[in-house]
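Hello Y.,

Per our agreement to keep a running log of every chain we model this quarter, I'm adding this entry. I've kept the format consistent with earlier entries: sequence first, then predicted structure.
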Amino acid sequence: MVSKVLLSTGIAVLGWLTISKLRRASRSGQRRARKVRRPEALQSSEPDEISVVCYNLLADVYATPKRYPYVRPEWLAWPHRWAALQQQLASFGADVICLQEVEPARWQEIVSSPALAGYTGLLQDRGRGSDAAPVITNALLWRPDKLGLVWSESRSRALLAAFVFWDGVGQQQLLYVANLHLEGSPYRPNDRISQTRSALQRLEAHQLSHGLSPGDAAVVVCGDFNSGRHETVCSFLHRGRLEGGTTEPHLPQVEVTKTTIAHPYALHEAYSSGGVELPFTRKVPSLASSLDFIWASCNLEVTALYVPVEARHQGLIAHQALPNQHYPSDHLPIGAVLKLKHFYVEAFGDAHPPQPPAPGDPPQAIQDFEGL
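Predicted structure for the entry above:
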């Protein structure tokens, strides 16, 4: 038993040392990414580039006056929201669109919309639900003229996929995508870590079964994490490990993991790496928070980032919660253009989120979309 524990700990430490070495090799920093503001399309322009958008649609079953009493009922109605969602989806222009809160009953309506002409779609399989707990799933949309699906797997809180594409030197490359919608209860951070770890383990298992080194893979991990950048999910993704006994600052009585865990990927958060900070991705009257993230392996450089608020709506979004007449979800979409780096020649920088403010200090983050 002791030998198994020592072996597990040794593997975790080795993985952490490998990831740390990769980050030190890229210490000098990445160029500031170009901003793409809604409604401009977030399109890739080179074979080595892949554009990715992540968007929690707000499931229609949740869009009720009881949940959102501050929103005019006609803005919550599906006909109004669907028209706005189609306009938003049509404007993305991304190679891959990762969706959360998709209702299976609405899937055919979504995937067959003229707004998504040129896309192929895949819906997560989460089985049957009930009236008390309806099934809400993730989905992937991609351009088959850019990417070819070679593998997919549904987990309880994740839709995993591998795509092939041709790079700028005529080589076929693999892109792995993990589309996550993690546990929403603030009292269950251990579930969020378990769900994240499970998704990464399945990616790693597929790569190893095909003779691929996980550390060399092009990987995107994105979605609605239901936790912030200073909490343990982002810490686990960035550091590559979590020590046993780790807790969240707001919930010290719940261990997110009892043993030290690790993953083999060197990941960076797209907006931090690209030099753009969104003030929030979800906004309700009592709280504006960033819960949605795009993490990418360090062989993917961020060349452009999506700013999801139109210039003409900056004043509106600063004073009005989501959803509203122009933004049909309680989340804003996020997106990035990622460029495959063939060698670790130029550095990307350490994209570790800044340290949180001390208790009682005012937050340093920008509070609205003015100036972006």
